[in-house]
TrEMBL record:
Gene3D superfamilies: Aspartate Aminotransferase, domain 1, Type I PLP-dependent aspartate aminotransferase-like (Major domain)
UniProt name for this protein: L-methionine gamma-lyase
Keyword terms, alphabetized: Lyase, Pyridoxal phosphate
Xref: NCBIfam families: met_gam_lyase, PRK06767.1
Source organism: Peribacillus butanolivorans
Length: 391
């Protein structure tokens, strides 16, 4: 095991890997193998019985994947990490591990579309209920936590409305009520926000987004206490089986090395675009965590390093006007996903959140004119030039 590094800029590069243990290989070797051979039958028996350390089969563990899991655990400041084949595999493995029939999940008002879909499935098939809560005040939370509440599930900033939730405030109430808190940290990454520092119990990611950063992997990551991570590893991960491929883990390790550099640039670019959008006559509203005039800005100041690379904004007009705007773009690509080098734009009401019934969509603040922009790493002037000519 490598040593622990104090600064995240160093940890993303060196944490979890020691070249001395791998014939001096500078980068983590790719163990692209499904299984591992035992020297004897008795060794196989000992490994299955947990009496001897060592690898068995790549659904149960793989050395390349292990480096990634150790690295993300260190970056989030947690005890252990676990890697999945997608962000949704991570979300579902965590939520199924924490709940049973007749339990209740209290969620932030606004969730990733497929997380919303998963909660509907858990409710209709397994009678695991949920409610949405604004989570603006302690009173709101206290009122909605029930004896059977098995966890509080929070996105902050929320996809796609960019609303922020004060994690310190949530944790105060959650601790009083003894309810674990799960945070989807996809939008911020540990470079901008570290939920475990506030006492949150589990943090998870769609690693597909900023952690990968290059648009070539679909993956998920979870960090928490060793005991909980072990429990997930031997139940909802091992037996449902959404494990990451070693190659995808290897690509993620490569992408992670530049996370701080990329996040700084995404944020600096987004700040410039935000300021331009805010002044544009055809833009009705702009939502950006870095907006210093927003009443929620204190939350960003408290728990985020800076505003990140995502902006949502509402155009004047109709859904058709929003679609026409997207069609007019040349440099900026129309695509869901986010956090890539390329600037991406999408229309949540008809894309990422189209499966959410209209009533809930409006409750979440997703109008037909809302557009989500993932500001890339291009020169911000070129990004703005493209947006400007599309109005
Ligand atoms: C993309 C996303 C997910 C789902 O992750 P996948 O890797 O696409 O399965 C979950 N939460 C948030 C906030 C996301 O943006």
């Amino acid at each position: 095991m490598a040593e622990k590094y104090k600064h995240i800029e160093t940890a993303v590069i060196h944490e979890g890997y020691d070249s001395k243990e791998h014939l001096g290989s500078l980068t983590t070797p790719l163990f692209q193998t499904s299984t591992f051979t035992f020297e004897t039958a008795e060794q196989g028996e000992r490994r299955f019985a947990g009496l001897e350390d060592g690898y068995i089969y790549s659904r149960l563990g793989n050395p390349t994947v292990q480096v990634l899991e150790d690295k993300i655990a260190a970056l989030e400041g947690g005890e252990a990490g676990l890697a999945f084949s997608s962000g949704m595999a991570a979300v579902s493995a965590v939520l199924f591990a924490l709940t049973k029939t007749d339990d209740h999940i209290l969620c932030s008002q606004g969730l990733y579309g497929c997380t919303f879909g998963l909660l509907q499935l858990m409710k209709s098939k397994y009678r695991i209920n949920h409610d949405f809560c604004d989570m603006d005040t302690e009173e709101q939370l206290r009122k909605m936590i029930r004896p059977e509440t098995a966890c509080i599930y929070v996105e902050t900033p929320i996809n796609p409305t960019m609303k922020m939730i004060d994690l310190q405030m949530v944790m105060k109430v959650a601790k009083e009520c003894n309810v674990p808190v799960v945070v989807d940290n996809t939008f911020s990454t540990p470079y901008l926000q570290k939920p475990l520092d506030y006492g949150c119990d589990v943090v998870l990611h769609s690693a597909t987004k900023y952690l990968c950063g290059h648009g070539d992997v679909v993956a998920g990551l979870v960090v928490g206490k060793k005991e909980f991570i072990n429990q997930v590893a031997v139940t909802t991960q091992k037996d449902i089986g959404g494990v990451i491929s070693p190659f995808d883990a290897w690509l993620l390790l490569r992408g992670l090395k530049t996370l701080p550099v990329r996040m700084d640039r995404h944020s600096a670019n987004a700040w410039e675009i935000f300021r331009e959008l805010k002044q544009h006559p055809q833009v009705k509203n702009v939502y950006y965590p870095g907006d210093t005039s927003s009443p929620a800005h204190y939350i960003m100041e408290k728990q985020m390093k800076h505003g990140g690379g995502l902006i949502s904004f509402e155009l004047q007009g109709t859904k058709q006007d929003a679609q026409k705007f997207l069609n007019n773009l040349r440099l900026i690509k129309i695509a869901v996903s986010l956090g890539d080098a390329e600037t991406l734009i999408q229309h949540p009401a008809t894309m990422t959140h189209s499966a959410v019934p209209e009533e809930f969509r409006h409750q979440m603040g997703i109008s037909d004119q809302l557009i989500r922009l993932s500001v890339g790493l291009e020169a911000w002037q070129d990004i703005w030039h493209d947006l400007q000519q599309a109005f």
